[in-house]
Amino acid sequence: MWSVFIVIGGIVLSLTGFNWLMGYRKNHMQIDFDERYLDFNEYIRAIKAELESQGKEVEYIGHRRFLIDDKQYAFIERNISMGGVPLQRTILKPISKQSSNQEKE
């Protein structure tokens, strides 16, 4: 009986961890592209173009940071295999003003 609970708990933890890694969190933005970008500058341009097509005001400020609608976001790239096909996922994580001030010091 306990083994059923352990298996169910393991499945729930695995799915929760996978969702956390893939950026499914409050205020995070995810972008999946049909094309893979190996050149970093080309990748940044593609992210900007996608966000601008969504009506957002975007500026790349360097060091994997974007200014989107006057809020700072950190750019995280994840590469995973989905059904044997590699997926390049872009996650834009909001940066709190407190943490960005600490990094400047």
Structure description:
This protein has 105 residues and is an alpha+beta fold. The chain has a domain at 24-94. It has three helices and five strands, in the order H-E-H-E-E-E-E-H. A five-stranded antiparallel sheet has the order 1-5-4-3-2, with helices on one face. The N and C termini lie far apart (55 Å). The chain crosses the membrane at residues 6-24.
Rg from alpha-carbon coordinates: 17 Å
Total helical segments: 3
Measured between the Cα atoms of the first and last residue, the distance is: 55 Å
Shape: elongated
- Which regions have little confidence, pLDDT < 50, spanning 5+ residues? none
Structural class given helices, strands, pairing? Answer: alpha+beta
| Helix and strand run | HEHEEEEH
- The average pLDDT is 80
Helical proportion? 40-55%
Strand count, sense and closure of the main sheet? Answer: 5 strands, antiparallel
The proportion of residues in beta strands is: 25-35%
With strands numbered from the N-terminus, the spatial order across the biggest sheet is: 1-5-4-3-2
* Strand count: 5
Transmembrane segments: 6-24
Keywords: Membrane, Transmembrane, Transmembrane helix
